[in-house]
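does this look right to u?? cobalt (II) ion version
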Amino acid sequence: MAKIGITETVLRDAHQSLIATRMRTDEFEGILEKMDKIGYHSLECWGGATFDSCLRFLDEDPWDRLRLIRKKCPNTKLQMLFRGQNMLGYRHYSDELVDYFVKKSIDNGIDILRIFDALNDVRNLQTAIDAAKKYGGHVQAAISYTTGPVFDIDYYCNYAKQLENAGADSICIKDMAGLLRPYDAYNLVKALKAEINVPIDLHTHFTSGMGDMTYLKAVEAGADMIDTALSPFSESTSQPCTEALVATLEGTPYDTGINLAELNALADYFKDVRKNLIHDFNLNANIPIDPKVLTFQIPGGMLSNLLNQMKEMGVADKYPQLLEEMPRVRAELGYPPLVTPTSQIVGSMSVLNVALGRYKMIPREVKDLILGKYGRTPGPIDPEVKRLAIGDAPQIDHRPADDIPPQMKKLREKLAEEGFPNAPIEDVLSYASFPEVTLNFLRHSNIGMKFHDL
Ligand code: CO
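got this back:
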């Protein structure tokens, strides 16, 4: 009987972290049946950035991808990453749309929904959690893990308790930047296991070089599942390596029940996939680990995006200042964990501060964050920054989505105007998330026409 469950991330987070989410369905289709036989706890294979990437870069319908994986993997639980009230987009949507999105994800094959909120505001998860339970999905509610003065064990236990009370079937500690140190993981998991009755999953990244050790300590403390990636798509900014963790735990009370030799065949397959993708997209083949993330709390991939932004603005020489500015802005904005969409919000504000002077130009998203339109920040907003950004405007203290009316009818009308009057609900949900990109895709693929003709 396997003691530790392995969630394999090669089809979602691993390629999102290492190769900008560019893995096409036809590249992994041929190995799915073998993956289905491994005995993974789950396959993380959908959601996160894969949805956007399918439509925007790969000319693929993400819903088709999900249905295909479901067909080829009837025995393994399929898992997705869902941004709570943001669905798979970058802003809040109506409860009605969130309910539909969750329903359609489950209808098309998802078993486990890992649901998180960038601000750890449980109100932003409730609609998605309720929907997942209503439609028979497993709710894995995730804690966005970060470090800072507000974030101690009590903070995380308190939030985990809220998630459990909200209906979570399991809890994930989501350490998106690899900040969780091995002994902190041990203490955190121990504390959670004492407080929480549902299984605990740990999700980390190898970014700082500690991921393997963090998993080992978490497993010793009682973690039930860990997230790993097959070797060709593991380490650096991705997850620790599946084969290494399976071997580490083999023959111990924490055995995963997975056969190492069978994993090797999968690894060989994905080695070629990685080689082809790096060639096709001219991608950086070697992303080194970056322990500096522990000092600046900025994931490596994000730094390279911000450096590009600075180059475009002609202020690349101010990059060293950015490294100091980001933690400062994050503190002033109430210590949001840096994950989509707060990572982009804090990042852009920091670039503008360094380029133009502090808070000389304040983007809409920063004002909205201060106004409470993303939910409650973990810490208070700096009063001076608040004054500069929103003056005397009142902050909202209710759930942001309470202000969003149902959107489905309008979206359908708009799609009809664009020539897709009978689009299936999946297409409407794609359109709600990424309007322009989805329209381009529908026109191009004629999927809309197919239904139009019926
Ligand atoms: Co991740």
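The first helix runs from residue 13 to 18. idk if thats expected tbh
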